[in-house]
């Protein structure tokens, strides 16, 4: 690795910690509800027969962004650091979710009733947000 990258990696003030049982339960409930809501919105057709997964996913992702900021700031973390960690979680989840969606191609062959690629990507983003808010500090 280049020297500047080695210095940057050494100076990253992010650590991994194990959560308490209470925090894990609360956060699992919040993110679990968001993931179930995303799945249901992507699997249920509207009256016109079109799927609304892409419309609802944005609102749920914004909610998860706010929840992640809230949970990270409860760990006595600055809002800027919490925002950077949250955005990093979104990027990682989007990359992994896009790769899985490209492999599944749910718009061509539905997967467990999901017809929207945005729902698959959103599920992975929500899961990465959960992991980030629970384990990183």
Kindly describe this structure:
The protein has helices spanning 3-10, 21-43, 53-73, 79-104, 117-135. It has one domain (20-135). Helix 2 runs antiparallel to helix 3, helix 3 (53-73) runs parallel beside helix 5 and helix 4 (79-104) runs antiparallel to helix 5 (117-135). 33% of the residues are buried. By secondary structure, it is mostly helical.
N- and C-termini, Cα separation: 25 Å
| Count of distinct strands | 0
Q: Give the overall shape, derived from the CA principal axes.
A: globular
Largest sheet: none
Total number of distinct structural domains: 1
Structural class: mainly alpha
The value of Rg in angstroms is: 17 Å
Average pLDDT number: 82
Short description:
Helices cover 71% and strands 0% of the residues. With 137 residues, the protein is mostly helical.
Using brief descriptors, characterize the structure shown.
5 helices; mainly alpha; 137 residues; globular
């Amino acid at each position: 690795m280049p020297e500047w990258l080695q210095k940057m990696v050494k100076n990253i003030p992010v650590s991994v910690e194990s959560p308490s049982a209470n925090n894990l339960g609360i956060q699992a409930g919040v993110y679990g509800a968001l993931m179930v809501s995303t799945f249901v919105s992507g699997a249920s057709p509207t009256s016109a027969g079109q799927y609304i997964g892409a419309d609802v996913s944005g609102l749920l992702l914004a909610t998860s962004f706010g929840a992640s900021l809230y949970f990270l700031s409860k760990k006595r973390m600055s809002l800027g650091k919490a925002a950077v960690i949250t955005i990093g979680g979104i990027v990682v989840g989007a990359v992994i979710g896009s790769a899985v969606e490209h492999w599944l191609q749910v718009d061509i062959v539905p997967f467990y009733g999901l017809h929207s690629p945005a729902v698959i990507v959103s599920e992975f983003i929500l899961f990465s947000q959960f992991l980030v808010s629970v384990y990183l500090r």
